[in-house]
Structures are given as structure tokens and as C-alpha cells.
Design brief:
Trp Operon Repressor, Chain A, 227 residues, alpha/beta, elongated, 5-stranded parallel beta sheet, two-stranded antiparallel sheet, Alpha/beta knot, 8 helices
Length: 227
């Protein structure tokens, strides 16, 4: 899979994409992430990529020309994208099912919003999917893009050492993950549940499902209601 990211502040993406599982995915050749500085396509020698909004109001808007040139050039170089994603607070809320679906694609382009956002005409002409990672506003779309890339990248076959691990993450089956334990068995008088020491895979699986269901009922009942 390849993911291209258009950003005003590409430095914000360096650390999240160069460590841990994302580094492993790229080192294995399973994921390629290319970050492109939007100022490469600036409208003048001063590097301008934003301007005042029509109608007045506080905040600058990312201009049409730099974004259009960037997208056109990237598509000419790398071919058509399976999805052109704009990170924006008013987009569709990012959930595991979306990550699952996007992990099956081959080529994605992510646009990181900044300032007051991008000119609406870019959204109308180029963007095929708009994503929000939550009901709050960040200084820019870079951190949100890193979240999306991480959620997608870890699902690619061969990225995780145990490929079944991602199948049991929270939200994969609309349930939160059950409690987990490791050594020692006795930590300050708190014991690992006996059933996890029983060696009976079916009993362990049943217990984990019951615990996941109970935890979801308590913490996220909306998941069980299909909200």
C-alpha cells in the first residue's frame, strides 16, 4: 500500500511515521508513506498557499491553486488514487470499520487541513472522502492523518508479528477488548483469574467474550445499540 500526504507542516508527521509498527511496516516494504510539502506548489516565490476568506472573518483559507496542482501532479506521477481523503472536523467520524475498509486499498491520498480549512471547490472537485477523528478541533490535520495511517497500516497482512492480533482489538466486533493479564500471577495480592490459568481454550474464549460484553455494556453501551 502507498499513502501520499499533502501537508503544510510535514515535520509533524516525521515522528509518528518513523517508529514502532509504522516503521516496521515501511521497512518490510508493506507500506510506503510519502509526505509532500504543499509549499512546493505555492502561487509565488514567497511560498504563499493561503489567503483571506471571501466575505470576511478571522482566519486564512488554503488556496485552490496549490492544492489542485499538487493533486494533479501526484496523480500524474503515481496514477489515480483509490480515495482522496480530507481530514476535517466536519467529516465522517473515523471508526474501525473505516480503517478496515481503507486497509484493502492500494493507493490513498490524504490532505491535511490547516488554518480555517481548504477552499470548498477543492472538496467538490477532488475529495472523495472526508474524515474526522473526533468532535474537537486540532491546529491542523497532520496529527489526525497520522492516526488514520497508523490505524490502517497495522492492519496490513505481515505488519504485526501475530497477524491474528488485530482481529481481537477493541471495536473489531463492536465490543471493547476484555481485560488482559501477564506475569506475575500474584501482584500485591491481586490474582490473575483462575480461568486464564486453566489451559482450556474454549473456557478462556468464553470468559473473554463475557468480559468484553460486560465492559462494553458498562463503558460504551452505544456500541451494542448500533449507534
Amino acid at each position: 500500500m502507498t499513502i501520499d500526504i499533502i501537508s503544510v507542516l510535514p515535520e509533524l508527521l516525521e515522528s509518528p511515521l518513523s517508529h514502532s509498527i509504522m516503521k516496521r511496516a515501511q521497512d518490510k516494504g508493506l507500506l510506503e508513506v510519502r509526505v509532500h510539502h504543499l509549499r512546493k506548489w505555492a502561487v509565488n516565490a514567497y511560498g504563499q498557499i493561503d489567503d483571506y476568506q471571501y466575505g470576511g472573518g478571522a482566519g486564512m483559507v488554503m488556496m485552490c491553486e496549490p492544492l489542485a496542482k499538487a493533486i494533479d501532479e501526484l496523480q500524474e506521477q503515481y496514477g489515480q488514487y483509490d480515495a482522496i481523503i480530507y481530514m476535517t472536523p466536519d467529516g465522517e467520524r473515523f471508526e474501525q470499520k473505516i480503517a478496515n475498509r481503507l486497509s484493502l486499498k492500494e493507493k490513498l491520498l490524504i490532505i491535511c487541513g490547516h488554518y480555517k480549512g481548504i477552499d470548498e471547490r477543492i472538496r467538490q472537485q477532488y475529495v472523495t472522502m472526508e474524515i474526522s477523528i473526533g468532535d474537537y478541533v486540532l491546529s491542523g490535520g497532520e496529527l489526525a492523518a497520522a492516526v488514520v495511517v497508523d490505524a490502517i497500516g497495522r492492519l496490513l497482512p505481515g505488519v504485526l508479528n501475530d497477524e491474528t492480533s488485530a482481529l481481537f482489538d477493541s471495536f473489531q466486533d463492536q465490543l471493547l477488548a476484555p481485560p488482559v493479564y501477564t506475569r506475575p500471577v500474584d501482584f500485591r495480592g491481586m490474582l490473575v483469574p483462575d480461568i486464564l490459568l486453566s489451559g482450556d481454550p474454549k473456557k478462556v474464549a468464553d470468559w473473554r467474550h463475557e468480559q468484553a460484553l460486560e465492559r462494553t455494556k458498562t463503558r460504551r453501551p452505544d456500541l451494542l445499540n448500533g449507534e
